[in-house]
Amino acid sequence: MEIIISNTKEELGEKAANRGAELIRKVISERGEANIIVATGASQFEMLNELVKEDIDWSKVTCFHLDEYIGIPQTHPASFRKYLKERFVDIVSPKKFYYVNGDAPDPASECVRLGEIIKTHPVDVAFIGIGENGHLAFNDPPADFETEEAYLIVKLDEACRKQQLGEGWFPAFEDVPEKAISMSINQIMKSRAIICSSPDFRKAKAVKGVVEEPVTPMLPSTILRQHNETWIYLDKQSSSLLV
User: Fold this and answer.
1) Buried-most residue among 76, 118, 137, 146 (CB within 10 A)?
2) What pLDDT, in 10s, does the model give residues 6-57?
3) How far apart are the C-alpha atoms of 70 and 41, rounded to whole Å?
4) What domain count does the chain have?
5) d(CA 25, CA 61)
6) By the 8 A CB rule, do 156 and 230 touch?
7) Residue 43 in domain
8) Tally: H helices and E strands in the chain
């Protein structure tokens, strides 16, 4: 795990996108195509803004969606499908983008559907973030480090739901869904390379834990220390509590 600290979150986004793009281009040159994971949330704004500018042959890139709330339509302002469609998919037009259908009639079947697809698409680069409570995707503490299922139905804890409210995605706490479909910890960790972007002071406590505390399901992002090809991009604020 390598930590890169930038002065601003704009610089963070540029560096993270540059590294990710370099890795994607390398895989395409070696294998002719690449598979990636794309995350959402306020922490990804700057990185995605730069990634879509990169010189990548997106017609050779298959993308997977990290997580989505259960029960909200794609038209909802907080929908991660809406977020990714507007900020990424409609701009670069990748070969294929596999969305998590949060309002599928049977969420369990949706998990199975996505799991079968990703089995045949080993992930080359995963773009992710760290939650204020240390979650990865929507794997809140205590996260399941054991399951081999690729996608899970998860219950969002209070801290996670408050983060979504605080980022402005919902008008009130009671409007934040209690459940989501999330890529599992083990599926994320199967990625050949992980690009983790985590700006802002509100992430500082979680970042400090990820870097300094023992690996534990109670702080899910600590698992990143066990992945040899992980780059964590921080700004001055999110890195401010590091020794």
Assistant:
1) 137
2) 999 999 999 999 999 999 999 999 999 999 999 998 889 999 999 999 999 9
3) 16
4) 1
5) 10
6) no
7) yes
8) 8, 10
